[in-house]
Predict the 3D structure of the following.
Amino acid sequence: MVEMRVSIFEDNSLLRESLVSLLGLKDGVKIVGAYENVLSVSDHIKHDQPDLVLMDIDMPGMTGIEAVTKIRSFNNDVAILMLTVFDDNHHVFEAICAGASGYLLKKHISTRLFTAIDEVLAGGAPMSPSIARMVISSMKTDTTAQKHYPLTPRELDILRSLSKGNSYKLIAAEFDISIETVRTHIKKIYDKLHVHSQTEAVAKALKEKLV
């Protein structure tokens, strides 16, 4: 079994330890780092090479949102699940726009953590409808001219499938390709659209009528 590598950034020591203990119950998970702040987040991510990051939004010295921006400056592949006390607030919105993969309320960690992790790693983006609407409405459309992006026909097909909320697994089945091939296509889509997350890609595709 391939291990899923997880890095945790949470300033509350009790919650951080609880996350380590909880994830220890899940087969195939390896905690590669657990940190009380994000001041050295770039070094930690480059060293740990995680598949998933659990990131508290409100961190001392540097916020989780700023940390996401730093991570996305050199790594667009790692899944980042934000942990927050409050639902549907502007901080969650900012985190998603910065490139977070989704978010989970801290009060639901004990019951929904594994489900949220599975959804993120399958290519989903766990978030409330209101946050999704905020992200979509925030995308600015160029009113002077339709923007053109050098997307291939297959990339457009995959972008359309993403826009329907399909996971990487479903997209792979739809086009009879491997999940790894799906990931490669999606990385190229992100690069061409100048975005850092599935949410941003779908929002831009919808706003600019690419799909």
Residues 42 and 172 are 31 Å apart (CA to CA). The chain has two domains: 4-136, 141-207.
